[in-house]
Amino acid sequence: MTLVHKLNSTITTIFFILILIDVSNSQASVSKCQISPSTSKYFPSSSCAIQDDTSIKASAFSQESMPEDNTEQICIIGSGNWGSAIATILGRNAARLPFCNDEVRMWVFEEEVALPSEESNDVPAKKAKLSDVINSRHENIKYLPGVKLPTNVKAIPDLKEACLNATLLVFVLPHQFLPKLMPTIRSSIHPTRCRGVSLIKGLDFDKKTKLPVLISQSIGKEMGDGFHCGVLMGANVANEVARGRMCESTLACDFGNGELNERTRQIFDESPNFRVARIGDVAGAEACGALKNVIALGAGFIDGLKLGDNTKAALLRVGLLEMAKFCTVFFKGVESGTFMESCGIADLITTCYGGRNRKCAEEFVKFRLRDDSTVSIDPEQCNRLWSGLENEILNGQKLQGTLACKEVYLLLESRGLLESFPLFRVIYEVSFLGKSVASITEGIVVRDRTICGTSIVSKL
Fold first, then answer.
1. Do 98 and 63 form a contact (C-beta atoms < 8 A)?
2. Do the bridges between strand 74-77 and strand 104-107 make them parallel or antiparallel, or are there none, so unpaired?
3. Phi, psi values for residue 253, rounded to 5°
């Protein structure tokens, strides 16, 4: 059975969700931007390079209307799989957009990597610094092997140097690493014109209130001086984006200026392959990006148990409803239409069919099935198993779904809301309390829509 056939039941489910959620039909328009052959000097030849025979201006901003001191200096904070993938787009766009400096800086957490060798396996592999490898080979051989980066993307291991006078910061690294980096970033950026876009899929939690806090808000607070941070979320599997396969993404931001919002969208948009629509609902888009990783754990459990596509479609339906419920309960200004954007239903489907959280969750179940799907295990065994799978499968990348799962569960427990979110509850119980994996279907509950109303709000 092909992936297309497997998706049929899930796609059908969307129509039921449309009945349950009020959907906004308005959608931000996507400008069509093409790449001029004149910028080809920045793109090493590769199978994923985007070419066009027509040289056109892709931007609404001209050199005359954008003086030199208003040019953008882009800095990417992070160089993992997704960071390197988005660098391919930002590098090409910076080279062709008249309001951007050609050079795109990418901060690299320095590490030694083994160089590919055509010699015998008996010969020890030579090692080199990752930043040197990226700058010489124009390829991140550890986190995005086989994809050439534009030559105007410069890997820089010194954070202060990478951020120097930056006007646009692109955050794309595990959020637990952010706090120790923020002082250096804050002291290095352009003093008056810098803003940020976060690609981080997670949530922070206030230490006192235990309530969820958007990472974009945490970044803005740490940066101070009215710093604004939006988010880019969507159905964006990094390897597919890097290889130029068509997808869409959602830029959620409001920098207080329509021209600046559009300028930011154009920096990320590379139509027709990477199509970016802008919305104003930062909270809804960002929360969806974190919560879908929790649902993906449940999808992996379904796959590991071989329960089939009908069960998985039911899990996605209930998962989307619990995501929407969580967002509207804990965040202000969330718009119902956000859940039908790429950052909502599309990202959920992609993550539950092909993401790292789903993959590791499937392996988690396979390991536990060696005994019996109805057998419970010790919580400590659960933690060791997740840690081992992360190290074995992800090649240095981190699981975000397990961390979000713990945080969401503790929040719901502290507010007495676990019974209102049965799927989130069961996914946590299977993942960390050692409950039998076969119990995952207990979380797929059909509820009256009134459960989303005042009965929940009154408990906060």
1. yes
2. parallel
3. -165, 160
Choosing from 148, 292, 325, 435, which is the catalytic residue?
A: 292
Token pair of 286 as six digits: 């960002």
227 and 171 Cβ atoms separated by less than 8 Å? no
d(CA 441, CA 443): 5
Largest alpha-carbon pair distance within the chain?
Answer: 70
Q: Where do we find the tokens 């998985």?
A: 312
CA distances from 361 to 335, 374, 443 (A): 30, 16, 16
- DSSP E strands: which ranges in 244-359? 247-252, 274-279
Report whether pLDDT(24) > 70. no
φ/ψ of residue 127, rounded to 5: -120, 150
Cα–Cα distance measured from residue 283 to residue 281, given in angstroms and rounded to the nearest whole number: 6
pLDDT at residue 450, as a whole number = 52
pLDDT tens for 331-363 read: 999 999 999 999 999 999 999 998 889 999 999
Strand boundaries in 125-228, DSSP class E: 127-129, 153-156, 168-171, 195-198, 203-205, 212-214
- The H-or-E segment that residue 74 falls in is strand 74-77
Give the burial string for 400-415 (b: 16+ CB within 10 Å, else e).
bbbbbbebbbebbeeb
Residue 423 · residue 318 · CB < 8 Å: yes
Residues in the chain: 460
The pLDDT tens digits for 403-431 are 999 999 999 999 999 999 999 999 999 99
Active site residue 292: yes
Looking up tokens 């800086």, which residue turns up?
Answer: 105
